[in-house]
Design goal:
heterotrimer, A mainly alpha, B alpha/beta, C mainly alpha, B: alpha/beta, Rossmann fold, 6-stranded mixed β-sheet, 17 helices, globular, C: mainly alpha, MetI-like fold, 14 helices, transport (chain A), transmembrane (chain A), Glutathione transport system permease protein GsiD (chain A), MetI-like (chain A), transmembrane helix (chain A)
Chain lengths: 271, 521, 315
C-alpha cells in the first residue's frame, strides 16, 4: 500500500510547507483589518474568502498551521522524551519496583479524562499555547511509556540480548544498543499517530478558547469565530475544518504507510 | 484404487512454484511417510490435499480423494468432505485449539458440523472420542489447562471424531518432548490399525517415520525425489539424508583429567507470584543441588526435556544470574563473586544459541555482531588489528572476511549458526556452551556444523557443553553425558556406557524414544 | 473466579484512593484563594474569614482531605462556592444529560462498528473493504466539533429536523429529549465508531490468521462459520478494552460537543466551574469521572474473565 504513504506524506507536507512558507510570505497581511471586505466568499483575490474582520482566510490558515503543528510536535517530543526512557527502564526489571511504579502511574494518568485535565491545566494556569503543549504532552507520556515497555519486554527475551549479556554488557548499554534501535520503527509510527491526535486536541482546546490567544490565529479559534455566522457564511467554517481534517488524515495515512513500509523489512530481518 | 491419489500436483504462490510434479498415493490402512527438509514443500502438499492453501495460491494437477477430484469441487462440497472424509493434525498443538472453548466442545463441533444430532449426543460422542485417544482429562477442560502432548491428543480426537478414511498428520510430534512424542506416534499407529484409515505422515525426521511407514516419499525443493519402501531407498539425496541424520564427526581430543568447570550443589530458586494479597511469595526451585564437572578439552552433553532447568542452569554457569546456594568455578575461580559476575572469568566462556534467527540484532552488520564479545576484554583490539581478528574469526568458521559488511538477514540458518560460532570464538574462550545449537538446522547442514565444531575444538583446544534434547546428536559428539530432570541430575556417566546401559528409569524412558533406523539402509 | 473479582475490587478501591489524593493535591497547589476570588479585591478580612469557615477552607490540608473524602462517601459533595447550592444536586441534574448522551453515542458507535468491522474482515481485499477503511480514516481525522457544526448547518438550520442546540429536558417526554441529543450523539459517535471499526477489524484479521482457525476450517467449517464461531469471541478482548475506554471518554470528553450544542452536561459544568474558580465543583466532578473510568475498567476486567477462561482459573 504505497498509495497511503504517498498520499499521506503529500498532504502532510503540503500543510507543513504552507505553515513554513508563512514565515516568509503570505498572500495578505493578517494583522491588517479590512472591514470593507469582510465576510466575502472565495474570489480571485481571496481564494478562500475573508473573515468577519476582512482578513484573508488562506493567509490565516497558513499562519494558524504554525501553531497547530508546533503545539502537536512539541507535545509528541515531550511524550517521547520522557515516555521512552521510562518505558525502557521499566522493561529492564520486569515486575520490579520501578516497573510497578511506572506502570501504576501510567494507569493513574489513563484514569483521568484527558481532555478535561487539559482544560483544567490551561484554565488554571492560563490559556496559552505553552500550557496547551504541556497539557497535551502529559498524556503522551504514558502512551509512549507503555508502548516502549511492551515492545522492549519482547526484545529482552530475544537471544541477541542474551548474547549481549554474555558479552558482558549492562542494562543501560543493552537498552541503547539493542533495544532502542529495534523500537525506532514502532516509535515513528506511534509518533505520527500522536502528532495527529495532538493537532485534533489543539484544535479542540483553541476552539473553546484555551489554546493560543488572539491575535495569534489558530484553526480551532477560526472555527469558533465562524460558528455564529455559519448560516450565512459557511465558507468561514469550511476551510479551517478542512485544513484540520486533511492534515490529520495525511498524518494518519502516513503513519499507516510507514508501518506497512517498515514492518515487513523488520520482519524479514528477524524472521 | 487408492484412497488418495495425487498426480502431477503443481502449486504456485504469487507466481513462484512451490510444488512441481508431485505424485503420491495412499491406500486404506496404509501409512505413507513424507520426508523433507524445511522448504521442501511437504506441508504445502498436505494443505493442497485439504484445499486449505493460503490465499493467492494456484493449484493444478489432480488430487483425488475416494475418486473425487478435490480441485474440481466447490467450496461447499469441500467443507462437507473436510473433517468427515479427511482429517488433519497440525504441528503446533499449543495454538491449534481455540483457547475460549472447552476441548469437549471443540471435538463435538466436528460432529455437529457434519451430522444432524443433538448437542448432548455430540458431546457424549466427543467424550468417547477423547477416551479413544487416551486422554485422561474430562472434556470440560480448557486447552490452557492441558500439556502439549494432551493438546495434540485433542487435535487428533477432532480429526478422527467422524472416523475419516484419510488422516494427515503434519509434523505431529515435532513440537513435543521426546517422551511424549513416542506416545502420540503409537496412538496414531493404533488408530490406523483399528479404523483402517490411510495415514499421510509428514516429518523432517527420517527416524520418526522410518519404522512406521509402509511407503516413504522423499521431497526436496517442491519435488518428489524418490518413493519406495525404506529399505529400497536408492536415490543419492535420500542416502545423503540418511547418512547425515546419524552423522559422527571425527575428533581426536578426548579431554584431559584437569577440571575446567566445576559445579557444586548449585541451587537456583525463582520467586513465584504471591498468592492473594497477603500471601507470601512462593519459591520455585528450578535447579536443585546440581553438581558435575567438565574436564578441559572434553565434550559434555547435558540432556533433558523442556522445563527441566537446563536453560536456568546455563544462565547461572555463564554468570548472568546469581545462584542461591552452591558454587560454580571455572578454572578454580568463581564465575559470580558476591554481587556481580567475574569479568576475568566470563571472558573465558561464550555461548551459541538455538534459534539462528533471533540471536542477532537485525540492525547491526556482521562485523559488529561478531566483535560484540570484545566488550569483555580489558584492551579490545582496535583499527586494523580489529578488522584482522574479525576476518580471522569469520574465515575460521568457513565464511569470508568480506561477509562482515553484510546484514544478518542475508544469510541462511546454517550460515547464521556459523556466524554465532565466530562470535563465540573471537575472544578465544576455553568453554563454549552450545544451547540446542544444531536443533533448528536441517540434517545435512547439521552434519556440516557438527564437523566444523569438532574441527575447531581440536584446533583451538575448546571445551564444549552440549545442551540438547536430541539424543542421537548427543550420542555422536559427546564424551560424557549428564541427564537432568525437574532440576535434578538423575544420571551421569560416559556417553557410551549411559546409552548402552542406563541405570535410571527416566534415562531408560528417554533412550527408548530414540527412533532407530532399520538396518541395511 | 471469586478470587479474581475480589482482587479487582481491592485494586479498584486503591486506585480510587490514590486518584482522590492526586486530585486534592493538584487543586491545593492551584494559585488563588476561592474566598478572596468570590468576594473581590476590597473584601474585609473578617468577612473573608467567615466565608472561609463556611466553605470549609480552614484547617490543615489533611483535615480538609479527610472531611472531603468522608463527605463524598455519604453522598455529600459540599457546597458550590459560586452558586451556594449542594454540589451533589448540581451534578445530579447534569448527569441526566451526560449519561444518556454517552450511552446513546456508545450505542450508536457499536451499532455502526460491529457490522462494518465484520463486513470488512470477511471481504478482505475487496473494493468494499477499501471503502469501509477509507470511511474510517475520514471518521478519525474529522474534528468532531466541526462535524457537529456542519450537521447543525444541514439538519438544524436548513432542514430543521433537529434543534440546533439546547436540551429540551426529559419532562418534555422521551422523544423530545432524545431528539435534542441525537445530533450531539452522532457527532460523538462518528470518530468512536471509526476507531472501533478499525480495532475490531484488525483484531478479527489477527485471529483469522491463528492456527485454531485453520483447525476449524479443517473440521469442515466454512470461512463464515469459522469467523463467527471462533474468531469473533477471541477478537472481542481488544474490542472490550476500547469500548471501556470510549465510554469513559464519552462521559467526560463531551465538553466540546456540549459547548457546540449548548447542552447542560457535566463537561460544561466543569468548564464553567474552572473559569469561576469554583474548585469544590471541579474537584467533585473530576473525582466522579475518575470513579466512572475506574468502575468501567473494573467492569471490563470482569467481562474479560467472562470471555476468557484463562483468566478465570488464574490463582
Amino acid at each position: 500500500m504505497r498509495r497511503n504513504l504517498i498520499l499521506g506524506t503529500g498532504l502532510s507536507a503540503m500543510f507543513a510547507g504552507a505553515a513554513l512558507l508563512s514565515f516568509f510570505w503570505v498572500p495578505f497581511d493578517i494583522g491588517a483589518l479590512d472591514i470593507a471586505n469582510k465576510i466575502k466568499p472565495p474570489s480571485g483575490a481571496h481564494w478562500l474568502g475573508t473573515d468577519h474582520f476582512g482578513r484573508d482566510i488562506l493567509s490565516m490558515i497558513m499562519v494558524g498551521g504554525r501553531t497547530s503543528i508546533a503545539v502537536a510536535l512539541v507535545a509528541v517530543g515531550i511524550g517521547m522524551g520522557l515516555g521512552v526512557p521510562l518505558g525502557l527502564a521499566a522493561a529492564v526489571q520486569r515486575g520490579g519496583w520501578l516497573d510497578e511504579g511506572i506502570m501504576r502511574a501510567n494507569d493513574l494518568i489513563f484514569a483521568f479524562p484527558s481532555l478535561l485535565i487539559a482544560i483544567m491545566i490551561t484554565a488554571v494556569f492560563g490559556a496559552s499555547a505553552v500550557n496547551a503543549i504541556i497539557a497535551i504532552g502529559i498524556f503522551n507520556i504514558p502512551v509512549f511509556a507503555r508502548l516502549t515497555r511492551g515492545a522492549a519486554l519482547g526484545l529482552w527475551t530475544r537471544d541477541f540480548v542474551l548474547a549481549a549479556r554474555v558479552a558482558g554488557k549492562g542494562a543501560v548499554r543493552i537498552s541503547c544498543e539493542h533495544i532502542l534501535p529495534n523500537l525506532v520503527n514502532l516509535l515513528i509510527v506511534q509518533g505520527t499517530i500522536q502528532f495527529s491526535l495532538g493537532i485534533l486536541a489543539e484544535a479542540g482546546l483553541s476552539y473553546v478558547g484555551l489554546g493560543a490567544q488572539p491575535p495569534v490565529p489558530s484553526w480551532g479559534r477560526m472555527l469558533a469565530d465562524s460558528q455564529t455566522m455559519i448560516s450565512f457564511a459557511p465558507h468561514m467554517a469550511l476551510s479551517p475544518g478542512l485544513a484540520i481534517l486533511l492534515t490529520v488524515l495525511g498524518l494518519n495515512l502516513m503513519g499507516d504507510g510507514l508501518r506497512d513500509l517498515l514492518d515487513p523489512r523488520l520482519q524479514r530481518g528477524q524472521r | 484404487m487408492s484412497l488418495l491419489q495425487v498426480e502431477n500436483l503443481r502449486v504456485e504462490l504469487g507466481g513462484a512454484p512451490v510444488l512441481q510434479d508431485v505424485s503420491l498415493r495412499v491406500a486404506s490402512g496404509q501409512i505413507v511417510g513424507v520426508i523433507g527438509e524445511s522448504g521442501s514443500g511437504k506441508s504445502m502438499t498436505a494443505l493442497a490435499v485439504m484445499q486449505l492453501l493460503p490465499p493467492g495460491a494456484r493449484c493444478t494437477g489432480q488430487v483425488a480423494l475416494k475418486g473425487q477430484d478435490m480441485l474440481a469441487l466447490t467450496e461447499r462440497q469441500l467443507c462437507r468432505m473436510r473433517g468427515r472424509d479427511v482429517g488433519i493434525v497440525f504441528q503446533e498443538p499449543m495454538t491449534a485449539l481455540n483457547p475460549l472453548q472447552t476441548i469437549g466442545q471443540q471435538v463435538a463441533e466436528t460432529i455437529l458440523i457434519h451430522e444432524i444430532v443433538s448437542r448432548a449426543e455430540a458431546m457424549a460422542r466427543a467424550a468417547r472420542t477423547l477416551e479413544r485417544v487416551e486422554l485422561q482429562v474430562p472434556p470440560t477442560r480448557y486447552p490452557h489447562e492441558l500439556s502439549g502432548g494432551q493438546r495434540q491428543r485433542v487435535c487428533i480426537a477432532m480429526a478422527i471424531a467422524l472416523r475419516p478414511e484419510l488422516l494427515i498428520a503434519d509434523e505431529p510430534t515435532t513440537a513435543l518432548d521426546v517422551t511424549t512424542q513416542k506416545g502420540v506416534l503409537d496412538l496414531l499407529k493404533q488408530l490406523v490399525a483399528e479404523d483402517g484409515m490411510g495415514l499421510l505422515l509428514i516429518s523432517h525426521d527420517l527416524g520418526v517415520v522410518a519404522d512406521m511407514a509402509d511407503q516413504i516419499v522423499i521431497m526436496q525443493r517442491g519435488q518428489v525425489v524418490e518413493t519406495g519402501r525404506f529399505c529400497d531407498l536408492r536415490h543419492s539425496y535420500s542416502k545423503a539424508l540418511l547418512a547425515a541424520s546419524d552423522h559422527v564427526p571425527d575428533r581426536t581430543g578426548a579431554g584431559s583429567e584437569a577440571p575446567l568447570l566445576q559445579l557444586r550443589d548449585v541451587v537456583r530458586d525463582y520467586p513465584t507470584p504471591r498468592k492473594g494479597w497477603l500471601g507470601k511469595p512462593g519459591r520455585f526451585r528450578a535447579v536443585d543441588r546440581v553438581s558435575f564437572e567438565i574436564r578441559r578439552g572434553e565434550n559434555l552433553g547435558l540432556v533433558g526435556e523442556s522445563g527441566c532447568g537446563k536453560s536456568t542452569l546455563t544462565r547461572a554457569i555463564l554468570g548472568l544470574e546469581a545462584v542461591q546456594e552452591g558454587t560454580i568455578l571455572l578454572g578454580g575461580q568463581p564465575v559470580y563473586d558476591g554481587q556481580r559476575a567475574n569479568r576475568s572469568i566470563r571472558r573465558r566462556m561464550q555461548m551459541v544459541f538455538q534459534d539462528p534467527y533471533s540471536s542477532f540484532n537485525p540492525r547491526h552488520r556482521v562485523g559488529r555482531l561478531v566483535s560484540e564479545p570484545f566488550h569483555l576484554l580489558e584492551t579490545a583490539p582496535q583499527g586494523v588489528e580489529k578488522e584482522r581478528v574479525i576476518a580471522e574469526a569469520l574465515e575460521s568458521v568457513g565464511l569470508q572476511a568480506a561477509d562482515r559488511h553484510k546484514f544478518i538477514h542475508e544469510f541462511s540458518g546454517g550460515q547464521r549458526q556459523r556466524i554465532a560460532l565466530a562470535r563465540a570464538l573471537i575472544i578465544r574462550p576455553d568453554l563454549i556452551v552450545l544451547d540446542e545449537a544444531v536443533s533448528a538446522l536441517d540434517v545435512q547442514v547439521r552434519a556440516q556444523m557438527l564437523d566444523l565444531l569438532a574441527d575447531l575444538g581440536d584446533r583451538f583446544g575448546l571445551t564444549y557443553l552440549f545442551i540438547s534434547h536430541d539424543l542421537s546428536v548427543v550420542r555422536n559428539v559427546t564424551d560424557r553425558v549428564v541427564v537432568m530432570r525437574a532440576g535434578r541430575i538423575v544420571e551421569e556417566g560416559k556417553t557410551g556406557e549411559v546409552f548402552e546401559n542406563p541405570k535410571n528409569i527416566y534415562t531408560k524412558q528417554l533412550l527408548a524414544t530414540i527412533p532407530r533406523l532399520p538396518e541395511n539402509a | 473466579m471469586l478470587r479474581y473479582v475480589l482482587q479487582r475490587l481491592v485494586s479498584l478501591c486503591l486506585s480510587l484512593l490514590v486518584a482522590s489524593a492526586v486530585i486534592f493535591l493538584a487543586l491545593e497547589i492551584v494559585p488563588g484563594d476561592p474566598a478572596a476570588y468570590m468576594l473581590g479585591l476590597n473584601a474585609q478580612e473578617d468577612t473573608l474569614a467567615a466565608l472561609r469557615d463556611e466553605l470549609g477552607l480552614n484547617g490543615t490540608a489533611l483535615q480538609r482531605y479527610g472531611s472531603w473524602l468522608s463527605g463524598m462517601l455519604h453522598g455529600d459533595f459540599g457546597i458550590s462556592y459560586t452558586y451556594r447550592t449542594p454540589v451533589a444536586e448540581m451534578i445530579g441534574d447534569r448527569l441526566w444529560v451526560s449519561l444518556p448522551l454517552a450511552l446513546f453515542a456508545l450505542g450508536l458507535s457499536c451499532l455502526i462498528a460491529f457490522p462494518a468491522a465484520l463486513w470488512a474482515a470477511s471481504r478482505r481485499g475487496t473494493l468494499g473493504e477499501l471503502g469501509v477503511m477509507g470511511m474510517t480514516q475520514l471518521g478519525i481525522a474529522i474534528p468532531n466539533f466541526w462535524f457537529a457544526m456542519l450537521m447543525v448547518l444541514i439538519f438544524a438550520v436548513n432542514l430543521r429536523w433537529f434543534p440546533a442546540g439546547g436540551f429540551a429536558g426529559w419532562e418534555e417526554g422521551l422523544f423530545a429529549g432524545l431528539k435534542s441529543l441525537t445530533l450531539p450523539a452522532v457527532a460523538l459517535a462518528l470518530p468512536q465508531a471509526s476507531i472501533l471499526t478499525r480495532v475490531m477489524r484488525s483484531a478479527l484479521l489477527d485471529t483469522l490468521g491463528e492456527d485454531f482457525i485453520r483447525t476449524a476450517r479443517a473440521k469442515g467449517l466454512t470461512r463464515g462459520q469459522a469467523l463467527r464461531r471462533h474468531a469473533l469471541r477471541n477478537a472481542m478482548i481488544p474490542v472490550l478494552t476500547i469500548i471501556g475506554l470510549q465510554f469513559s471518554f464519552l462521559l467526560a470528553g463531551a465538553i466540546i460537543i456540549e459547548n457546540v450544542f449548548f447542552l447542560p452536561g457535566l463537561g460544561r459544568l466543569v468548564f464553567q466551574a474552572i473559569s469561576a474558580r469554583d474548585l469544590i465543583v471541579v474537584e467533585s466532578v473530576v473525582m466522579l469521572l475518575v470513579f466512572a473510568v475506574i468502575l468501567v475498567n473494573f467492569t471490563v476486567d470482569l467481562a474479560y474473565a467472562w470471555v476468557d477462561p484463562r483468566l478465570r482459573g488464574r490463582r
